[in-house]
Amino acid sequence: MNTQIDNLLHEYRKFPPSEEFARNAVATTELYEEAKADRLEFWARQARELLDWETPFTRTLDWSNPPFAKWFDDGRLNVAYNCLDRHVEAGNGDRVALHWEGEQGDSRTVTYADLTAEVKRAANVLSGLGIGEGDRVAIYLPMIPEAVVAMLAVARLGAVHSVIFGGFSADSIRSRVDDASAKLVITADGGWRKGKVSALKPAVDAALQARGDLGPQETVTNVLVVKRGENEIDWTDRDLWWHEEMAKAEPEHVAQSFPAENPLFILYTSGTTGKPKGILHTSGGYLTQCAFTHKIVFDLKPESDVYWCTADIGWVTGHSYVVYGPLANGASQVLYEGTPDTPHPGRWWEIIEKYKVTTFYTAPTAIRSFMKLGRKIPKQFDLSSVRLLGSVGEPINPEAWMWYRKVIGGKAAPVVDTWWQTETGAIMISALPGITETKPGSAQVPIPGINVDVVDDDGHHVGTGNGGLLVVAEPWPSMLRGIWGDPERFKETYWEKFGDKHLYFAGDGARLDHDSDIWLLGRVDDVMNVSGHRLSTAEIESALVAHPFTAEAAVVGAHDDTTGQAVVAFVIIKESMLEESAAVEDIAAVLRAHVGEQIGPIARPRDVFIVNELPKTRSGKIMRRLLRDVAEGREVGDTTTLADTTVMQIITGQVTAK
Ligand code: WT7
To answer: Residue 8, SS3?
Structure first.
């Protein structure tokens, strides 16, 4: 890892924007100066210019009770109105909001007028089901227009959505629905993935039934079901078809305003313990930073651009850069249901050609998997419409960055590497196209109005050329407002690492190069990043130990050429189980499948190694660092703090024998 970092820091290639790009750029250097001169006034101006407020705010930031921030808190607005009605009122109702493309090639064109009409009806459906301000609605849908409609209908009512990624299992749905005490679940009979309809409703049914120690789920009163496939579904009294309710609903709905700090959504993300954290975002500040960053980082020209962010709405990128940022800005975008390689490996490039996509935003893991397939595939399509490329989710290695720029961007499109998190709500660090000279592999600079730093363990700035921990030094509009139901964990996890300095601890290592550009170096805690998705070692370990075979388990994230990191598990099997049961390979397969069922397929370990001991310190803490060495095929590091120093030899022997 260290040699890799050193190599990265010797990256001296820089790509200035073309003169033409710079001349027409939406971002300006004055933004930096203005934000520096008066940061709060800068954000207040963005909030006023980018959004419509029913009641204008007079207070920009209230930081009197850190870390609980309030932005624009005496203002009132409706988030859905800002994403929909106002564009129609401004005469842009005919503009395409969504170029929706199904995996099988079916498509729908949804204009701003259409989307507004759908959301109004859906809001009436939801209020008819008793949903109002502050109520929580769980959404478990594929990438279809109804997913966007559902989120905005919830927002329109001042209710709170909790979108659950369609790849999560019944147990994950249950814990999220319980934690938020959701009243309603919106799902579908299924969604297309890899050439077939994969069912969603059965997972919701299973989640709501009695399971394990839990009785039947009690807060959910209805399940609304969108018909996407032809899947047979088990019907219960609380289930309703989306299309039937929509047909019955009134078409008119006037949006009420809500306070800027009204909760907008909860999104669960993995932390360092087994229990996912419900990250809470509110309305006015969140929408301001989403709209601002979407506009300047993606150089948005709403009349002519076709923007495409490939993220699923189940992740924060889908919230901020599929739903809220682009729609607040009146952008036209592609929404694609399926997987990148179905029905053929050029599917994404075919979509870019078909819709003449100008701005493309995806994850390094996808770029690397296309690199592996070779440039022959994208070369079969006309990608000349592409003028800007974005990357998000994990560090992008310079090689992938160069390939992206050259093969997808025709050697001309700027590549912006955007660093942010579920918690930050919107982009925090990124080059600005047309302004910044881009540098392969580095996320580079904070956006105007954002103050980040790289510090040592005491919270002191490290200076150029040095590494440390990434922090956000001042509150920002789209910051998380807390962890749902757990203010103590919110304080402890993010705000107490550096005493009372009130620095936000992001959990990422970072380094500043000779230009003071920021390089992200991955997580410093027990959080993994697999294909840009965050997974917690503790969560997977607790799933493994929940299986009757398992005595003990340790999980690490090991380097993987395609997915960035891969889940590798070391498991001690109960003596009794080893005696009676079959081959070690079978046990490993059972455990892999078990994790898939408990959490979801993305959490399934790439490798499960059956071992008879785990490396522990004298105080009993598992030394995952050493297991990572083994998993990555390296010589094992310093073992002197182990209680039993021979353990690692045994484990290495067992793993290499496999
Ligand atoms: C973690 C946040 C942001 C939306 C998708 C992931 C890593 C994210 C970058 C980047 C290096 C990155 C960090 C961060 N990360 N973007 N451009 N360069 N690392 O959101 O699931 O909340 O994960 O993803 O480690 O802490 P998330």
So the answer is: helix
- Ramachandran region, residue 194 (left: φ > 0; alpha: ψ -120 to 50; beta: rest): left
Question: What's the confidence (pLDDT) of residue 2?
Answer: 39
Q: Which residues line ligand 1 (CB under 6 A)?
A: 269, 316-317, 392-395, 417-422, 443, 506-508, 520, 523, 529, 532, 534
Q: Are 366 and 391 in contact (CB under 8 A)?
A: no
Cα(258) to centroid(ligand 1), Å: 30
Tally of domains in the chain: 1
Coarse DSSP helix, strand, coil percentages of the chain, rounded to the nearest 5 percent: 35, 25, 40
Query: Hey, whose CA ends up nearest to atom 23 of ligand 1?
Result: 421
Q: What is the CA radius of gyration of the chain?
A: 24
- The separation between the first and the last C-alpha atoms of the chain, rounded to the nearest angstrom, is 25
Within a domain: residue 23? no
Whole-number Å distance between alpha carbons of 147 and 153? 10
Edge-first strand listing for the sheet containing 518-523: 452-455, 467-472, 504-512, 518-523
Q: How far apart are CA 548 and CA 627, in angstroms?
A: 23
Best residue for ligand 1 mutational test, from 165, 312, 520, 526 (most atoms within 8 Å of Cβ):
520
**What is the tens place of the pLDDT at every residue in 205-253?**
999 999 989 999 999 999 999 999 887 889 999 999 999 999 999 999 9
* Average confidence (pLDDT) over 31-49: 98
**CA 7–ligand 1 middle distance (angstroms):** 21
Residue 142 scores a pLDDT above 80: yes
Full domain range(s) for residue 582: 527-657
- Give mean pLDDT, residues 441-469: 95
pTM of the model: 0.90
Nearest atom in ligand 1 to the alpha carbon of residue 443 is 17
Measured distance CA(131)–CA(98) in Å, rounded: 26
Q: What is the DSSP letter of 210?
A: -
CB proximity list for 303: less than 8 A, separation 6 or greater = 95
Residue 182 has what pLDDT? 98
What is the identity of the amino acid at 280? L
Tell me the per-residue pLDDT of 278-327, one tens digit each, with 9 for 90 and over: 999 999 999 999 999 999 999 999 999 999 999 999 999 999 999 999 99
Separation of 532 CA from ligand 1 center, angstroms? 7
- Element holding 550 (H helix, E strand): strand 550-560
pLDDT digits (tens, 9 = 90+) for 100-122: 999 999 999 999 999 999 999 99
Is 639 part of any domain? Answer: yes
Measured in Å, residue 535 CA sits from the centre of ligand 1 at 12
Ligand 1 centroid – CA 5 distance (Å):
18
Q: Which of 394, 397, 469 to mutate to test the pocket of ligand 1 (most atoms within 8 A of CB)?
A: 394
Q: Does some domain include residue 569?
A: yes
- Residue 409 Cα to ligand 1 middle (Å): 23
Q: Any idea what the CATH number is for the domain that residue 604 is in? A: 3.30.300.30
Check: CB of residue 201 under 8 Å from CB of residue 257: no
Give dist(CA 509, CA 471) in Å, integer.
9
pLDDT at 3 over 50: no
Residue 172: its H or E element: helix 170-180
Quote the tokens at residue 165: 């990624």
| Distance, CA of 239 to CA of 606 (rounded, Å) | 37
Whether 495 is covered by a domain: the verdict is no
pLDDT score recorded for residue 582: 64
d(C-alpha 176, C-alpha 524), whole Å: 26
Instruction: Return the ligand 1 atom nearest residue 418 CA.
Output: 17
